[in-house]
Design a protein that fits this description.
globular; 144 residues; alpha+beta; five-stranded antiparallel sheet; Heat Shock Protein 90; 35% helix; 4 helices
Amino acid sequence: MQNEEPIKQSCLQVETDLNAVKEVLQWFEQFVSPRWPKDFWWGCQVALEEGFTNAVRHAHRHLPPTTPIELELKVFANRLEMRIWDRGEPFDLLTKLQVLCQEKCNPLEKEDGRGLIFMYRFTDELSYQRLSDQRNCLLMLKWC
């Protein structure tokens, strides 16, 4: 998997602005292909949109609107890889997901954490880690 070349890939950089979600979704559309089912693409789109809006609303909450958010999509023969880099304070994604999943109420009925649940449910692998350059990388993989 490490040496496999993507069929298609692209990067996008936008400012910290919720209005940029329109540009992010238009960029995502170039990847949609009948090769995989519509529900595959729909789930990936939801996960990407939630990841982006979380970067704006949470990671970059106290940063200038000119702070860049970087995105990358790679299509392979059997999967889609989506990455979002932010420059905010890191957090423990796995612990937050465990807390959300253990709550007695339906986490989808709450506003806090709903995006994380969507990303978790619509992807096959989800991780968030701090990099040496002081950015954080949200990685979402979906296998087909």
